[in-house]
Amino acid sequence: MIIGKVIGSVVSTRKNENLVGSKFMIVEPVEGDAKKIIAVDNIGAGIGEYVLVALGSAARIGCGKETSPIDAAIVGIIDDGANYIK
Amino acid sequence: MIIGKVIGSVVSTRKNENLVGSKFMIVEPVEGDAKKIIAVDNIGAGIGEYVLVALGSAARIGCGKETSPIDAAIVGIIDDGANYIK
Amino acid sequence: MIIGKVIGSVVSTRKNENLVGSKFMIVEPVEGDAKKIIAVDNIGAGIGEYVLVALGSAARIGCGKETSPIDAAIVGIIDDGANYIK
Amino acid sequence: MIIGKVIGSVVSTRKNENLVGSKFMIVEPVEGDAKKIIAVDNIGAGIGEYVLVALGSAARIGCGKETSPIDAAIVGIIDDGANYIK
Amino acid sequence: MIIGKVIGSVVSTRKNENLVGSKFMIVEPVEGDAKKIIAVDNIGAGIGEYVLVALGSAARIGCGKETSPIDAAIVGIIDDGANYIK
Predict the structure, then answer these.
(1) What ipTM does the predicted assembly reach?
(2) Which end of chain B is more exposed for a tag (fewer CB within 10 A), N or C?
(3) Testing the interface with B: which of C40, C50, C78, C86 to mutate, by most B Cβ within 10 A?
(4) In terms of residue numbers, what domain contains B59?
(5) CB E50 within 8 A of CB C13
(6) What pLDDT is stored for residue D86 in this prediction?
């Protein structure tokens, strides 16, 4: 998993039917080149929070969305995230 | 998922039989080094639109193409995509 | 998927038994840093042709090779590939 | 797999229910650009140890956590890790 | 798949039980930034040999190790590897 900061969300009205009801958050990884990713939120993460993001098949299967086209999911909120990044 | 802009399409006449009928769009990611990817369109995205692209097994399984050699699929169109990129 | 140019092939006599009969082509991606990959050919691609390459589980499952250790496969030949790259 | 050094851990109280009981370690790869990853520990690795990390579906399925959103797992501790890195 | 040169091996005494009996080789890819990977050997590759490495789920499933935490496997030895790299 990677750690990132939730910095916003995106809205998609026209989308795959298996994505209806999913919330798409923009996550900026705290490591590396900071290429932002779009992750489905499973936890209720808010903007500004530091989160654990699972990538790949783990995002689908680990979140009970086996048949959804999801390759990234927020699966945890880091306690004391602001300290982590220092 | 990543967000990209649809900038064109490619045609492949000689191809794997499980790809017959698929539309291959050229998508330029808005983040990072802009390495273009070829994604199958499931939504009816047009050139110039900003789209959500699912990568890996999510592209196959999440789009009902379990047995097709697809590793990238357009699964949503971003509302107000031009603003997103600013 | 990515687009690449077939630039050669490799021969491996001692190999996993599930790879016997597979043809290994060297493909140079047209995008990015041009790190070459070895893809199994399912189409009959020739050297110099521009091809669609599927990566990951799509290469195995999408080509009817579920139990072969294949993570990259040529799944289409691009019509008019020379123009694409310009 | 990759080799990395365990440099700390993160705590996430609010998380996916399939992650309850998992220990999240911060691992710094010894190769490349040193982008840190968060790996679930299956072995009892301590801070400062050099470990083998499995990535992708191997982390879930190879550790008996098929339905957890885990994409990285510590699956071995390198004997004589300090020498490896020299 | 990628091509790499076997440059050594690592020993891990404390490891996931599904890895017992596996041989971990250090492989240096011949392409790109040369970030070394640890691959399980299925072929009997020796140090100095050029090998085909399968990555991701192909490494597990293609080598009959469906339930092992393996994400990289040596699946072939390149004939005339020294010439390949020139």
Answers:
(1) 0.94
(2) C
(3) C78
(4) 2-13+21-85
(5) no
(6) 47
